[in-house]
Amino acid sequence: MDSLPHNIIIVGAGIAGIASALALSRELAPFVPNLTITIYERHEILSTSGGAINLTPVAQRHLAQLGVLEELDRMGPEGGAEVDAIEFYSMRSGRSVGSIDFVDQAGNGFGGYKGRRVMRIMLSIAMITVVERTRNIDIVYGKKVVGGEEHEGKAVVCFQDGSKAIGDLVIGCDGVHSAVRTRWVDPDCPSQYTGISFLQTTIPSQTISSPIHFRSSAMNYSRHGSILTTYCDRNREQIFAAAIVQFSQEDLSYHKLEPTQDWATQDRIRSALRRQMQDRFSKTSIRCIREMVASKADWMLYPVYQVRPGGRWCLNRVILLGDAAHAMPPRDESAAYALDDAILFARLLARYRSEPLSEVFDAYEGLRRDKINHAFKESGRMWDRNRDMGMLESRLKEWMMPLYLRSHRDEREAAWEFDAAQITLPTPAPSDDLLILIHGLIMVGTFSSVPAVDFARLTDPRTKSDELAKLKEAIFVVGFLYLTNTGLENLIHRTHEALPRLFNLPTGVKENCNMIHSPSFLGYTRLGAETTASKTDLREQFDFGTPGVKEWAKGDPFWQRLEGPNQYPDQPGSQRLVEDYICQIDSLAQGFMHSVAECLTLPTDTFDDFKGNMSRLKFVKYPPSTANSQGVGPHKDSAGLFTFLSQDNTGGLQVLNKDGEWIDVPPVEGSLVINIQQGFEAITGGICAATTHRVIAPTSKTRYSIPFFLGVRLDLTLDQLNESAAHIVRHIPLSDDQKKRAVDVPSEFLSPLYSCFGEAHLRNRILSHPDVGQQWYPELYAKYSRQSLK
C-alpha cells in the first residue's frame, strides 16, 4: 500500500468493532503518528440488548491484551461470574452427563484463565471505558449505514441522515444483519434464520427455593430444546436463563416484543412466551428449572440468524470482521471469534505495512477461512440437538452426550490455549530472497561475530566519523558490541577482584540482605531462586540500584516501590565498591548513549528524557555445573535502555543470530559487552532491535560477571512511547521504503495491559522472583501469575 491507513472507519460498536479499534490502535500507532479510528454505531445510545456472554480462556486472554479484562475486574460483582465448567444435565432424569471444563485436572485455568459469564451490557461498558482513554479512537452514535462506494482511492460510507464518512479503510463489524455486507461488499449474502431462537430472562437467585443443581453454569437438555442456566455476577445474585428452542419463522412476528407495540399486545406476547416455556419444560426432573419456568419472569425472544459460509469478506478498501463476515449459531467460542478476528487483522495490517491492502486481506483469509468453516459446521451440528425430537431420538442423544463430551475434550483444551497475539503470521514475499534491507544497510541476513567499537576513538574528533559508522552497523545489525578503551579498566579489574570474597561470605551474612526483605527487589539472591524462560537459573547474585533515589511514600504509585534503598552485605568497603562502580559506569553510559544518537544522526540529547532515576547493577556468580546447563536462559533484557556487561575470562555468553545459531561472545580483557535492551528497541520503533542471548553455565571453574542496566523512566506510558518512537523513526534519515521494510522485532517492553513501564517492570520482577512477589505484592502476584502478556 502507498502508506498505512491513517483514517480508519469501523461500522458497529459491538464486541468486534471495539476490539478491532483497540487492536488497531495498539498495532498501528507506532507507525502512524496521526492515526484516527472512528466507530460509527447505528443506535442512538449504547444497546442494552443481549444476554450473558460466555468468555472462554481464549476470549479472556484476548480481552486482557486489549486492556478490557482489567476493567471488568474493576466492576466488582457485575464484572461476571467465574466458571470452572459448563455442566450438562438431562432434564428427563435430572442426572449430570458430563461437562465442558475450563480448568485442567489440577484445577488450573488454561494459560492462566478459566471461564467467565458476564452480561453483554457490562462487557460493552468495560470496552467503551478503555476506548474513552485511547486518544485516537472516537465513537459516533446514531449513524445508520445505507451504502458505500470508493472514490479517488478512498472508501466512502453513506449514512441514512445524508452524511458521509471518508476513510482509507472501512471495517464492517455491524453484526449478522450487516449493512456493510448487504449494501456494499456482498449484496447476495443476506442473513438467514436458523429456525432456532433464544427465550431468555434473568431471575434473582434468592427467589428460587429449590436447590440450585449447578455450580456456576449448566446446559440442561430435553427433547423440546435446552435451557442454559448460569450465574452472571460474582456474588451469584442473578441467574441468567436462556432456552434454546425450535421456533418457526411464521411464529416469530407473533412472539416478538417491539417498543412500538401497545401495552395489551406486549402483555399478550409475554404471556405467550411464558406458556411456551411451561409447555416445553414444566415436567423436567430438575426442580429449580420447574420453578424458573413457572415464575412470572418476563422472557424475551431472540431469533438466531447466521451468514452462510463462503461469502465475500473483503472488497478493495473494505473488510468484514466478526458476525458481519461469519455469523453462526452461538457456541462456546462465539465471543472469542470476534476477538480473534480483531487481533489477527490488526497484526497483519502492521506486518504488511508496505504491501497492498489486497495482500493483507488475502493473508487474513488464509489464516481464518478454514477455521471459520470448520467452526460453522461444528456449530450447526451442536444446534441441531436443540430441535424438537421424538422420545427415541431424545434417549439416544442422552446416551451419546457423555461420549461426545469425552471424545472432544482434548480438542477443546488445545483450543483454550490459542493466542491470536502469538501465532506465527505469514511473511510478505521479499523483493529479493537473498538480501534483507535493514534501515539503510543491505546485508546478508545474519552475523557470525560481535563487532568492537573503540570508545576513545568515538570521542576523538579525528576518528569519530569512522567509529560512528562502526557503531551504527553494530546497533543496526547485531544489537551487541564490545566497547574498548573506556577508561574504566582499573575500576573493572578492582571490582572483579572483590567478587570472590563477597560471594564467599558466610551464608547467614548474605541472607541478612536477602532480596526477600526488599520491595524494590534489591539484595542477595541465593543459587536457583530466579527463573528465565520458565527454567531455574544456576546463578547466585547481588542486586543494587542507583543510590540516593527518592523512596516510596504512601500515596505514590505502587510501582514506584521499585526505586528504593540498597541492601549491602556486611563487609567493609562493599558499599563504597558498589557506589563507585555505579557512578563511573553511569557516566560512561550517558556518553555512549549520546554517541548512539549521533550515529543515528539525531541530536545527542535525544534519549536523555527516557533515562530513569534508578539504574541497576548486579554482581553475579555462576558455579560450575554439568555440561550445557542453563546459567541464565534465552532472553532479551527488558528493564532499560542498554546493558553494560563486564565478564571474567571464563566465557559462556552467547547471542542468537538471524539464522538461529548461537554465537559465542568470548571475553576481551578490559572491554565491556554492550547490548540493546527492549526499552531502547521500543523507543526507536524497532529500528534498533534487542538480541536474544543466554549464558551457558561453566563446567570446570566459577564464572563472575558484572552487568549494569541503564534504567528507563518508570512513568513512561505507552502513548508517550508510541509518540516518541514515531518521532524518532521519522527523523532518522532513511527512505520511507527502508523504514517500512525494517525487520519487525516484537517487544514486550510495555504492553497495553499496563498503565506505564513501572507497572510492566514490576510484573517482570514479580514473576522472576516469585518469593519476593508473594511477600510484598500478593494480590499482584496472583494476578500476574495467571495473566498472558502480549
TrEMBL record:
Q: What does the UniProt keyword field contain?
A: FAD, Flavoprotein, Monooxygenase, Oxidoreductase
**Which family is this sequence assigned to?**
Belongs to the paxM FAD-dependent monooxygenase family.
GO BP terms: namely: small molecule biosynthetic process
Q: Which domain of life is it from?
A: Eukaryota
- The organism encoding this protein is Penicillium frequentans
GO MF term set: FAD binding; monooxygenase activity
Span of the secretion signal?
Answer: none
Q: Report which residue ranges the record marks as coiled coil.
A: none
**What PANTHER family does the record tag this protein with?**
MONOOXYGENASE, PUTATIVE (AFU_ORTHOLOGUE AFUA_6G14510)-RELATED
InterPro entries referenced in this protein's UniProt entry, alphabetically: DIOX_N (IPR026992), FAD-bd (IPR002938), FAD-dep_Monooxygenase_BioMet (IPR050493), FAD/NAD-bd_sf (IPR036188), IPNS-like_FE2OG_OXY (IPR044861), IPNS-like_sf (IPR027443), Oxoglu/Fe-dep_dioxygenase_dom (IPR005123)
- Report what the protein is called: Fe2OG dioxygenase domain-containing protein
Does the record bear Cytoplasm in its keywords?
no
The residues covered by the Fe2OG dioxygenase domain are: 612-712
